Amino acid sequence: MASLSSPHSFTSCMLFLFFLYLSCFFNNLNAKHDIANNHKHQHRHKHTQNPPSNPRLYRAFLALQAWKHVIYSDPKNTTSNWIGPSVCNYTGIYCAPSLDDPKQTVVAGIDLNHADIAGFLPEELGLLCDLSLLHLNSNRFCGILPTTFTNLTLLYELDLSNNRFVGPFPSVVLSLPSLTYLDLRYNEFEGPLPPQLFNKPFDAFFLNSNRFTSSIPRNLGQSKASVMVFANNKFGGCLPESIVNFADTLEELLLINTSLSGCLPQQVGFLYKLRVLDFSFNNIVGPIPYSLAGLSHLEQLNLGHNMMSGIVPMGVCELPNLENFTFSYNFFCEEEGICKNLTSKRIVFDDRDNCLPEKPRQRSKKECSDNLERPVDCFELCCIEDGFGKNVTAGSVAIPPAAMPVSAPIVAPSFP
Ligand SMILES: *[C@@H]1O[C@H](CO)[C@@H](O)[C@H](O)[C@H]1NC(C)=O
Ligand SMILES: *[C@@H]1O[C@H](CO)[C@@H](O)[C@H](O)[C@H]1NC(C)=O
Ligand SMILES: *[C@@H]1O[C@H](CO)[C@@H](O)[C@H](O)[C@H]1NC(C)=O
Ligand SMILES: *[C@@H]1O[C@H](CO)[C@@H](O)[C@H](O)[C@H]1NC(C)=O
Ligand SMILES: *[C@@H]1O[C@H](CO)[C@@H](O)[C@H](O)[C@H]1NC(C)=O
Ligand SMILES: *[C@@H]1O[C@H](CO)[C@@H](O)[C@H](O)[C@H]1NC(C)=O
Ligand SMILES: *[C@@H]1O[C@H](CO)[C@@H](O)[C@H](O)[C@H]1NC(C)=O
User: What is the C-alpha separation between 148 and 74, in angstroms, rounded?
Assistant: First the structure.
């Protein structure tokens, strides 16, 4: 499934970067160790509760001890060696030379992925102001992010996925100037998304499987995101035309099961770098925009489980990199040209439960004619998205037909 496979390539890339980063840590650490060990030998007779002499490591020590104090279950004993001042030796804690003063060792990364720890994030974590990476995937942390996170000005990757965090969107992340990768999926966050989120220069955000509710703001700013995954939230509203602002970077857009309605704007077809596009399990109506024929890198296209209708356009079926095209559970009534026989193009497809007269496993004649009696006029269909209302009404306000950009990127430039 696209939703599972797509973050993978991204993750492996990030992992690679992470290891590169760690190997940097370790190279630097080896050098540091010699100094640190000599230092320790001299002080061996002193008891081990001496605080670290480096003030930044001392602050990290305070932060990690406060954290350990609010961990109430650690079934894999991950934090059992979080004792004493040598914080760089704690499991999951990674030290590196400070960016502003390479002579000082600081805590730069925390990786407690899959530790199954239950507990909270205490305010004292704000003392870890040298932190670049915080990976807490697959634990049982609950509660909210402390506001002291604003102190983590170097934080670059924040992965809180698959925990039990609750409450509104943790707006404190919007104040982090270095944040590039935000993963909040599989938590219990709820309520509206702050519109500023879409204007942050994040490379990737994963918000799927929470309880976010607001529609996507109509005036999206310039984003640098290459991956946006919003599946399984109750957004509502339409996909705004301003999604085109993401064209220069967006490679994966997954909006599965997000209560989207209205028609797909033709601007989706101008996201010329897309490899994965998945709108399945929504209430989208209207046709497949012909502009999708411009998505020359597209590999996975899933429009299944909507209420779309009209023709499946040949231009989409002829996309050079298309591997898997799902449009089942809609009301399409005609497949143009090669779309009739995607097998001949070795494209995996699913066209079940439409109104395609020559295909097996289609909807009943009655269902199809009932749907035909309710024609969709995308230009008349208006989404109420001001503020964060979520509603779709037909006809009340006429919006002008979307203007076609002068030079639609039909042939996408190649990118590395
Ligand atoms: C094709 O895509 C559908 C929908 O995302 C998915 O369920 C299916 O497993 C995919 N098939 C292959 C062979 O990738
Ligand atoms: C964790 O430590 C406790 C007490 O020292 C021990 O009983 C338990 O077996 C350890 N668990 C693991 C997974 O090492
Ligand atoms: C920290 O780890 C290093 C390398 O594994 C080891 O030599 C050193 O004794 C450890 N320090 C403490 C205080 O445990
Ligand atoms: C924020 O970091 C500074 C050091 O840069 C530290 O002195 C201060 O106590 C931290 N604030 C909080 C709330 O942790
Ligand atoms: C859609 O998301 C809701 C939560 O918002 C979830 O309960 C439901 O099972 C999801 N449906 C599908 C088909 O995944
Ligand atoms: C689809 O194309 C394949 C190979 O080109 C061919 O064998 C098959 O008969 C075609 N199926 C239909 C329904 O035309
Ligand atoms: C949407 O608008 C209709 C008509 O104005 C109203 O009856 C309905 O309650 C609204 N739904 C929501 C979720 O606001």
Answer: 24
